[in-house]
């Protein structure tokens, strides 16, 4: 009996990965082949990262940005192609998913403009917070991008705390934190794209294991697009994803974690984001703490990030990203272990 049950669960999980794998493959191809074209456009429009702007840059030659345009295109194309086949009954794009993609498109444009005009930190923060609020108000019975409850590590009916009117600001702040930390960690060739691939891939597994196929498909598109872009962004990088790319990856993963991972049991719902997004969140926490202790504004750019620290220890760019890849993979493996044990 137990053997038959194990086989049934295994078959369900295998079949659950078919659509996400197909989506990821399409996203990889689209982003990989589109990125060189985007690179040429970025050069023509002057969207280039000049290493002489400040001493935080680790590259020595001007590198075009706007890679986020290719990443976003890969996500939208892959999801748009696979979702109608996965949901042929007309429920391919529920309201919350449409809202996620539309707001992500807005952030791509904002990021592309920021790459050209360098908006102030306060303006960027305001736009991210407004995006986190806006995405919550377009929903249906099939789902909503909103943290309605907080899970606490106890058992029984009292293990969830309803947020009520606080749900909107708390959700917006959570989306802002994840999105902004993905942006701030994008300081070394291939780091943000690689971390996004690992984190989004983890969300795919959690979604499949939890029986959330739509979340798995979108997460797979994110992982595939990040991986397709990584081929051009790994050291020595030919193009950067820019603000728009980091915003899209962070925003969409934050939204998916709310719809997907945070819907797991109360005992792990608070823990999962700290594990899945552990490296960028830890980086942001360390940087902010150091700035506060030194009396500097938390928005002031400096070389206190984890990748700067590792580079300062004598590691190369490739060695630095590999160390942080391993750290991210370990944290995500722990997240998967916790989810699996929670469902046993």
Q: What keyword list fits this structure?
A:
344 residues; mainly alpha; two-stranded antiparallel sheet; two-stranded antiparallel ribbon; 14 helices; 69% helix; disordered N terminus
Which class best fits the helix and strand makeup? mainly alpha
Query: Kindly state the mean pLDDT as a whole number?
Result: 87
* Measured distance between first and last alpha carbons: 16 Å
Shape: globular
Low-confidence stretches: 1-14
Order of helices and strands: HHEEHHHEEHHHHHHHHH
Based on DSSP secondary structure assignment, what is the total number of beta strands? Answer: 4
Give the C-alpha Rg: 20 Å
Count of DSSP H/I helices: 14
Query: Going across the major beta sheet, what is the strand order?
Result: 1-2
How many domains? The number is 1
Describe what this molecule looks like in 3D.
- With 344 residues, this protein is mostly helical.
- The protein has one domain.
- A two-stranded antiparallel sheet has the order 1-2. The chain has a two-stranded antiparallel sheet with strand order 3-4.
- The longest helix has 28 residues.
- The chain is globular.
- The protein starts with a helix and ends with a helix.
- The N terminus is likely disordered.
Structure summary:
By secondary structure, this protein is mainly alpha-helical.
Topology (SSEs and partners):
Layout: H1 2-16, H2 18-45, E1 48-49, E2 63-64, H3 67-86, H4 95-117, H5 121-134, E3 149-151, E4 160-162, H6 167-184, H7 191-209, H8 213-233, H9 242-259, H10 266-269, H11 271-276, H12 278-293, H13 306-312, H14 317-343
Antiparallel strand pairs: 1-2, 3-4
């Amino acid at each position: 009996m137990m053997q038959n049950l194990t086989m049934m669960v295994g078959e369900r999980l295998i079949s659950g990965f078919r659509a996400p794998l197909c989506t990821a493959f399409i996203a990889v191809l689209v982003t990989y082949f589109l990125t060189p074209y985007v690179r040429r456009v970025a050069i023509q429009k002057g969207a280039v990262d000049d290493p002489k702007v400040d001493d935080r840059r680790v590259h020595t030659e001007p590198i075009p940005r706007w890679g986020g345009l290719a990443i976003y295109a890969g996500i939208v194309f892959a999801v748009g192609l696979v979702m109608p086949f996965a949901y042929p009954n007309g429920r391919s794009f529920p309201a919350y998913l449409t809202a996620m993609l539309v707001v992500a498109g807005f952030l791509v444009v904002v990021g592309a403009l920021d790459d050209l005009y360098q908006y102030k930190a306060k303006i960027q923060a305001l736009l991210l917070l407004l995006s986190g609020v806006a995405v919550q108000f377009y929903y249906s019975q099939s789902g909503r991008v909103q943290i309605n409850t907080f899970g606490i590590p106890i058992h029984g009916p009292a293990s969830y705390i309803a947020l009520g009117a606080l749900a909107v600001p708390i959700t917006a702040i959570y989306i802002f934190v994840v999105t902004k930390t993905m942006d701030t960690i994008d300081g070394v060739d291939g780091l943000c794209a690689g971390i996004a691939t690992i984190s989004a891939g983890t969300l795919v597994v959690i979604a499949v294991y939890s029986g959330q196929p739509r979340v798995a498909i979108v997460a797979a598109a994110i992982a595939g697009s990040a991986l397709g872009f990584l081929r051009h962004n790994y050291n020595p990088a030919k193009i950067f994803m820019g603000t728009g790319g980091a915003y899209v990856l962070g925003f969409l993963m934050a939204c998916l974690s709310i719809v997907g991972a945070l819907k797991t049991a109360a005992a792990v719902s608070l823990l999962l984001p700290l594990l899945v997004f552990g490296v960028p969140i830890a980086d942001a926490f360390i940087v902010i703490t150091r700035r506060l202790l030194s009396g500097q504004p938390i928005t002031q750019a400096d070389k206190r990030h984890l990748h700067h620290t590792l580079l300062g220890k004598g590691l190369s760019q490739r060695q630095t990203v590999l160390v942080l890849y391993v750290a991210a993979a370990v944290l995500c493996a722990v997240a998967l272990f916790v989810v699996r044990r929670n469902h046993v």
